[in-house]
User: Fold this.
Amino acid sequence: MDFVSRFFGVLLFFLCILCVPGLEAREADSSGYVKDAFSLDLTADAFLLTSGVSLSAAGFFLQPDSHDWDGVKYDSSGVNAFDRPFIHSYNRALDFTGDVLVGLSLVAPASMVFFIPEKWLTLSVMYAETLLIANGIKEIMKNGISRTRPYMYADNPPEKDIKDGDFDRSFPSGHTTMAFSSAVFFSYVFSKYFPDSVYRYPVYAGSFLLAAATAGMRIASANHFPTDVLAGAAIGSLVGFFVPFVHTLNENLQESRGNDGISFALSPAGAAVSFNY
Assistant:
């Protein structure tokens, strides 16, 4: 329990720091909107998108072949003392609830388009990069770290997951990874575009409540151990912060070089590349 309390303490401190409106804040207009909080950059975004696609593709192609279960219940004595109390039978209703919650978490950031429709491209590119990278990391880890799910130590494990071979891919929790990457991305980006908005705190609370509820359902449904969701929360939070943070550096870089060099822009009408010197 000491490890868990320290983990959550560090994570809470990290999340509080990244959501402070003053960090990397730029001058807001009269409505409190910081229009240049983030910017796209051809080199940086090409690298991030390529990395995300490559990681996700690697996670897909590196999936191990499914193997049969001999029908014998797994021995829980090999499970660490912290996770062992959370072994229980699979619950399909709670599993479905977790699917719904992570879906809501992933859709939530799209609401920013209604606040700042002119930033749809910047938001879309950053969010796509975030989800691709988070998905790739968790898939590679799942494939490389074979860990049996909690329901295999109890009665009546789900037949579908056994046939698919998914019962040995418990670490880290994919649902939790994606939910926290979305929650941190939404909170961080919203706070930078609207540093003085009264909606910042509802966004924080709603985003992390959905992510935490998703993690809770993954444990309650016997799909994951607590350490699985802790790892997923850490991975998702780091990626959800890192990707938009890079896009604040893009703007700083352009300012420091006086907008010299190559710039790349996309719009519904087409694409444009410009050279400034």
Remarks:
- The first strand starts at residue 261 and ends at 267.
- The chain has nine helices and two strands.
